[in-house]
Design brief:
The protein is mostly helical. Helix content is 55%, strand content 5%. A two-stranded antiparallel sheet has the order 1-2. The protein has a two-stranded antiparallel ribbon with strand order 3-4. It starts with 5 loop residues before the first helix and ends with a helix.
Length: 255
Amino acid sequence: MRAVPKLALEFLKEHEGLVLRVYDDARPRIVLKPGVEPEGTFTAGYGHTGPELHPGLTVTYELAEAWLRRDVEQAAQRLAARIGAIVDELTEHQYAALLSFVFNLGASPGWTIWKRLRARQFDQAPLEMMRFVNAGGKKLQGLVNRRAAEVALWSTAEPGSLDRSPPSSATRSGETPPTPADPVPASRSGAILTAVTSAVAAVSVAAQQMIAAAAPFVEQSTWVRKATALLATAAAVAAVCVLALTWLKKREARA
């Protein structure tokens, strides 16, 4: 597994903040008495949660540091489980930004951001990250700020970019086209759908051709009539399948 960069730990320390006591995240400013039950989740250190936390537990700086490293390593494992070897293709800043993202939110397997990253559509990652700003059915400014900071971290030292900061007078007067989107690699499932659709369409066409060829003999043979009826059914089923497969292709293209 890729090592956790120091950059990620420093970023998390800055944005999580350090609290050297166990508190209830539903009422963080209240000093809890031993034995009290939480209204939210017991938390301590740099946003650490776990069954070992309870009011009255002595929380030292060293313990908070150990918890943070363990929690970030767990975030790294979750990230690797979602995007696999793509982890090794990220810059240190991109990797640190994603570790903060997973540390803060988790890594639900159904999120589109993992699909974008696995497809190497790295330019789409900041857009996907900025979608995660809601909690409890409301958009939270704190999450907007956190996502914006992660996007800024992701975008630091962008591969291929020059270390220049031209004034607005220069960018207004010169060409400043948008960066082209990352190319979308051929989808394996899309290729399979295309092949299956073509094959089913070919079956439909072949069935219709056979029905046309057999038409002159339908009235002369019971066997030909039965075979023609079967071919007509096959052609109809194939036509429905083509429509369904075409719809699936369009839906995958939109995803």
